[in-house]
Design goal:
This protein has 369 residues and is mostly helical. Helix content is 69%, strand content 1%. A two-stranded antiparallel sheet has the order 1-2. Helix 2 runs antiparallel to helix 3 (71-81), helix 2 (37-55) crosses helix 11 and helix 3 crosses helix 11. The longest helix has 35 residues, at 89-123.
Length: 369
Amino acid sequence: MGDGEDGRNLIYHKQKYSKKVKNVNEMENQSIKPRIEWIDTAKGICILLVVYSHVYMGDHPAFLHFQDYFRMPLYFLLSGLFFKTYNNFHNFFIKKTNKLLIPFVFAYIFLSTPMLFFLQYRAGLPVTFPSDFWEAERWRFLCKGNGTLWFLCCLFILNIAFYAIFLISRHRTKLIIVCSMLIGLISFWMGRHEIFVPLWGDAALTALPFFLFGYILRNKSNILYEPFGKKHLVICALSFSVLMFIYLYNSDFERIKIELIHGDNYFEVDCLSMYLGGFCGTLFVLMIAKRLNHVPLVSFLGRYSIVILLTHVVLIILLRITLYHFNINIDYIHLIMLGLFIIVVLIEIPIIKFCIKYLPYVFAQKDLL
């Protein structure tokens, strides 16, 4: 009789435990918010513009140069849009190391440096190092084999800088705005006077207002989850109008283009044009992405845009070297470059699938630390 009662008690406790585990799992599942598809679409649009620009090496048709204002600021804004403190600085640092620094180091060693020496062998590019280890151009030169790597290092520094401002300001929004804008303006001025900071620190500080803009959008609006409506259509139209006004105002039609190079903290426009053009351009793309919501291929590329960011330049260089063996008719150069762009995008699809399956820790899909 005692054994039977013990058995019934054991069954009762097992059922109770199983029910408790089930309730916990349901609570955890409810706390996990669904993926915001239109953000992936926005990232997809952005990475396609990045690939397109690098295929053309910046010499794309003149009427498309307006995208130079917002192509990189959009990534800075999106990072600010999802800024989290992760409870303390240690957790924050580890998280950003996994998502940004580890992919940067991996691509720097295994993609950028080998490609740099390959270019020396193939194109006679001299591989020399500045005498001062901390000279800004040292690291920038080593990234010439894969020119987009600067962005990950820059974004890492940007996140750390904003976190520091966040702590110093004691979470007070007005003080965060003042500090971020002031530091951004000072860094822009430094770039104008050719004062550089190693490891793209100057580019990171200049980008602080864009990061701040994303942070404010997240905390002072419901942009992430509200459905697309008339106000978003108005924002889209107004932001595009202002962007085009700024672009036309600064255009010098006797030259190929007006340079806006965020990685080098080099801008051939005034401070107001650079920031306002960036703000309006990012809003325009965000509203377009919000209206489209989910575009299968674009959203897929956006979700794994870090893989494309780290691999597409190497792919473009190899394909361009292959093209040099053929007699290219200069009259059809834009058509050829468009074809090259499509080929690069299509090749990136299997590259993404391979990397997320076999190299998830170095492409920010899983945490290594």
